[in-house]
Amino acid sequence: MKALNALLDAGIFPDFAVWQDPRDHSYAIPDRPEIREVTLILNESCHPAFFEAGFKDYIVYPDPGFLGTELSSVLHGEDIPFLAGTSVSTLSAVLALVYGAKSLTLLGQDLSISEGLYVGGGVSTEPELEDGPSLMCKGIDGKDLPTQPNYYSFIGEFGNIGSAFRERASLINSTAKGAYLENWQHLPFSEHPLIGVESGFEKKAIEMKSEKDVAEKRDATVSALAAMTEKLEHAKNICAEIYRQCLETIEQGSNDVTVIDLLERRLKLIFDDECPLLKYYTSRQSLALTRATLSVQSLEENLRLSADYYKSIEIAASKLADLCRQSSEELNSANAAAGKV
Questions:
Q1: Coil, strand, or helix at residue 114?
Q2: How distant, in Å, are the alpha carbons of 217, 228, 236, 309 from that of 321?
Q3: I want to staple 232 with a disulfide (CB 3.0 to 4.6 A). Which of 62, 125, 244, 321 is the partner?
């Protein structure tokens, strides 16, 4: 996505742009009409701004954390591969290879810095180096090169991707300098075997489902949303009871938290297995609780923090349940409108 402006400036219309970050990085969406000619591949948990940006088509892939849930199966099907990567580059590589690419070439993946400069260009990286010495990685030429923590992680990811797919696809890191990627062939772009070769690839239009298929999928989605709403309401009620139990235990001066422990175990099952969407949606609250409990010195402090936490989860579960009901109403309305056409 971040390269899209440069490509469009050069008159290049890519087949796809890719986005996966769930945060509101709407500043990255090019403010130009040409995006109406570009298809966007994105994670289902991405910010609404990207779904509303006006791209030609949207191909939505499932978040790995939601696989196996009824709603995910209805939306994406049962036999869906695990599509994951901590960067757009690693995700795009997995996406292409999982769906049968026979050759994959990386461009611009230097993944190293040298003498305070990016290997691929004269852009200073001094701000990144202020926090301490760089990590070191093996270079393509065999020498040790400095890199950054996120780059170091990407190097490992690409190595794992190479290990998994090197027997079934040609993997080329088309970079003259930079980090060495295990299980990849390294070639400067000028020496790439496809330079000057006409591609025999024929683009195919995305097949659109019939109105009957769409209506049936809407009905199945409404059913899955109803099941999720039920789980969210259950979670909301559990949180309300834990909140009450925490305050009651404090008021009584008791140290018996047996009931609270049992309720927390049931809620964890909902978080982990039955409704991981709630766990994902409330991850900030969970991280805040973990940090806060590090300085807790008494059971009463712990109970008060827990009460605040479970009240916030109760509110979040209620909001998600309302959104599920709202979505169901919109899908039913769409089916009703389609039936009148």
A1: strand
A2: 20, 8, 9, 18
A3: 321
Q: Identify the DSSP state of 273.
A: I
16-19/39-43 β-pairing: parallel
The residues with which 118 forms a beta bridge, in sequence order, are 113
Distance CA 215, CA 1 (A): 32
Continuous segment of H or E residues that includes residue 293? helix 283-293
pLDDT at position 123 is 45
Give the helix, strand, coil percentages of the chain, each rounded to 5. Answer: 55, 10, 35
Percent of the chain with pLDDT over 90: 62
Amino acid present at 78: E
Integer Cα distance of 209 and 296 in angstroms: 56
- pLDDT attached to residue 202: 66
Please, is 127 exposed, middle or buried when counting C-beta atoms within 10 Å of its C-beta (0-12, 13-18, 19+)? exposed
Residue 108 and residue 174 in contact, taking contact as beta carbons nearer than 8 Å = no
Contact 324, 229 (CB under 8 A): yes
Does 195 have pLDDT greater than 90? no
Which one has a higher pLDDT value, 106 or 123? 106
At 50 the pLDDT is 94
**8 A C-beta contact, residue 57 and residue 206:** yes
Phi, psi dihedrals of residue 16, rounded to the nearest 5°: -145, 150
- Positive or negative, the CA dihedral 85, 86, 90, 91 is positive
Other CB atoms within 10 Å distance of the CB of residue 167? 7
10 Å CB burial of residue 275 (0-12, 13-18, 19+) is buried
Side chain identity at 165, as an amino acid letter?
A: F
Which of 111, 163, 173, 108 lies closest to 136, judged by CA? 111
Tokens of residue 159, six digits? 């190595």
For the segment 103-115, what is each residue's pLDDT rounded down to a tens digit? 999 988 888 876 5
pLDDT at 122 (0 to 100): 45
The 10s digit of each residue's pLDDT in 6-44 is 999 999 999 899 998 888 999 999 999 999 999 999 999
